[in-house]
Amino acid sequence: MDLSRRHFIEASLGTSMVGALGACSVNPRGAEAATGLSGQAGMPDWHIGYQNAPTHGFEPAPMQLVFGKPPADLKGSLYRNGPAQFQYGEQFASHWFDGDGLVHRIAIEDGQAVHQARFVATRKRREELVADKFLAPGFGTLGDESYSVQSSDDVNAANTSVLMVNGELLALWEAGSAFAMNAETLDTKGPKTWRDDLKGMPFLAHPKVEPDGRVWNLAVGGPRVGIYRISKSGVLEDFGMVDIGRAAYIHDWTMTERHLIILVQPWINENLRPPVVAGFEWQPQHGLQMLIVDKDDFTRQRWAQAPARMFFHTGSAWEDSDGTIKFDVVLYKQPVLGVGGGAAEIRGEWTGYESREDGILTQVVIPTSGDAKLVETGIVGEFPQVDPRYRGKQRRMTALTSGSTPNRPGTTGLATHDWSTGRSQNFAFGDNRIVEEFLFVPKAGGASDTESWLVGSVLNLKAGVTEVCVFDAANVNDGPVCIWQADYSWPLGFHGTWA
Amino acid sequence: MTRTSALIALMATSIVATPIATASDLTVTVEGISDVKGSIMMGLFDETTYNGDGAVSGANLKVEGSAVTATFADLEPGEYAVRLYHDVNDDGEMNTNPFGMPTEPYAFSNDAKGRFGPAKWDDAKFIVEADGTAHTITMN
Fold first, then answer.
1. Do the chains contact at A226 and B101, CB–CB below 8 Å?
2. How far is B121 from chain A (nearest CA, A)?
3. Separation of alpha carbons B45 and B40, rounded Å
4. Which pLDDT tens digit goes with each residue over A364-386?
5. pTM of this prediction?
6. Do B97 and A145 touch (CB under 8 A)?
7. What is the tens place of the pLDDT at every residue in B61-74?
8. In this predicted complex, what is the ipTM?
């Protein structure tokens, strides 16, 4: 990176590369946000990440290129999902995780980026909008007694991730059906039923897609877990059930080319009644157990054992030639929820820094026999991602959000770790930007996962707008390759996909 | 999950058709049937049987249109409730997914709906008058 480029990024991004001097208030476009979410009176600047999106979402609007040169080969759409309804009148949502899902599409082609977003039209969304208040029970919400609940989809917030299968966009939650959506207009079609006898079965928000397009996913219901195998054309090929012994909280899992690895963390919830968050119990005596299931025969299973850890997200797994399984995951020494996190932020309150537990990017090594080993990288972060061409296969790279600040929730940087060299890179955006999940997008003709772009969104707190940034996965230290900026901000989200 | 199992057990209660109508009849019409095939399996309950395994009476009604009607004769006037499911594939069972949630449509009198389980008696009950009563349930 030449000096002038670094200087511009420091000035415009307010990075911490030059310490406090880097926290510059210059907005590259020279003006405050014209439309969209503006800060509520008396709220801290970061609260724009937890404010309602417009009721009808965002109509397609071009984003402005404010830095760099977009890669010529970058063509496709970044789809993202996240909660975006936090308030009806004076009533705040009880938990961040219970906000209605807003699905975004940032279409990128010929150096241009266009943003649009629509809420997923769930029953919860429709009825609460009419009532102008929160009704449905949920993860952190007791709910209104008048709201009937006859299936998990009656409380489905469809707010956690997205998946594209055979041209159909699916909005994902973890305790109910996927919701099918039009990938162009983002109109909601309705709950996805993979087979008549599986109607209403949960479809986890972290499906795993093999490089050839086959999709694997889990349905979690206490100690019983269903396994979906879906062809790249979107047809259910197989479904089976396995017993994991305990009602462990399962948000994510991982797989190699041959095996599914279901992480049974000692964070147990036997009482899946609203508010779900109240039912968690940390039982470290069980350790972190892993059920390894043969993809070709779900009855062929073995268990592996590791020290007690809590987790939300894995990167991906592979198997060495001797059968040793290795995967990366962000591990916490104890749970990070259940202490009020996710509720106070909606009200603009931030007391979480003192009580936080750092998640460490860790490689879990499972030998063919004996206990698993945890190899910590020392990188504090979340939302680990890998190149989709290498899911289940040996690879070099993991990218994840990194860094934190005492002043607000959310991360401050983007990191990569190269498992083959042990080298890490990091770009610190500074305190004025909240960094969201970045996805690998293979470069045209790229032969390895270092030859990828990293594409993700960043909430610019100074300018009050959301940005989409592109990095070169091999040179994250150098900062963004380009940045597009919206005229407005949108609420912080969870996960996305590139299609 | 316990409540789900209870719901299924209650919905699957064995029921017997009673086609003859006289005074103190109850006529139950089920509207809004979306899938014109299979049968509506209907159970009629009083307060003592509502949460148990037995029914006061019942009907098995072939679905040949968007609505079906059942008539229950010679009832004692008083409070009753209806539970029904649409046996779409006519296998005689209320089908469920692997986690025990119904995969076939079901309904209760008063169009009552449950909250993590079947509708409560107080929400589903209605009065059968001495001179007869007609009740309509709408599937959704």
1. no
2. 15
3. 16
4. 999 999 999 999 999 999 999 99
5. 0.90
6. no
7. 999 999 999 999 99
8. 0.86
